[in-house]
């Protein structure tokens, strides 16, 4: 597959998640609610999660933002739902490396998330792509600290 074909495919995946977001809405019985925004561009997200016994049972998002921000949230929620907290945090770290154009563990299947790989070429858009992931990390880390106290 040529670079242009791959780029076109990635754009289609991103637009599909933007126009048909997965897991959009608010969980009524969430155990975690995380609000974050990107003041430089106005993107905002509310992530609601239900975590039980170290497993992300369900996760949803709502918010406003560009196609990169909202499609990343859709992809992230699809990827981490059903995963244990440790795996979700590992996926967030891998995504962070990938989106910054650094070496990352390519043996891990990131699914549709790989469509965002090209964002690394546009530093101003990296914050858009990472907003949902930062909310995930913040929520899971806060929840872990709450359980220790």
UniProtKB/TrEMBL annotation:
InterPro entries: NIF_FeS_clus_asmbl_NifU_N. Residues 10-128 form the NIF system FeS cluster assembly NifU N-terminal domain. Gene3D superfamilies: 3.90.1010.10. PANTHER family: IRON-SULFUR CLUSTER ASSEMBLY ENZYME NIFU HOMOLOG. This is SUF system NifU family Fe-S cluster assembly protein. It comes from Pallidibacillus thermolactis.
């Amino acid at each position: 597959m040529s670079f242009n074909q791959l780029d076109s495919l990635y754009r289609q995946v991103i637009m599909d998640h933007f126009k048909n977001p997965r897991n959009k809405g608010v969980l009524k019985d969430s155990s975690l609610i995380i609000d974050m925004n990107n003041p430089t561009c106005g993107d905002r997200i509310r992530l609601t999660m239900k975590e039980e016994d170290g497993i992300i049972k369900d996760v949803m998002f709502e918010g406003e933002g560009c196609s990169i921000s909202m499609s990343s949230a859709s992809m992230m929620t699809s990827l981490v739902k059903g995963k244990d907290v440790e795996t979700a945090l590992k996926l967030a770290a891998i995504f962070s490396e990938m989106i910054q154009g650094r070496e990352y563990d390519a043996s891990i299947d990131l699914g549709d998330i790989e469509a965002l790989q090209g964002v690394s070429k546009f530093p101003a858009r990296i914050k858009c792509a990472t907003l949902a992931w930062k909310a995930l990390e913040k929520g899971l880390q806060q929840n872990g600290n709450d359980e220790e106290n």
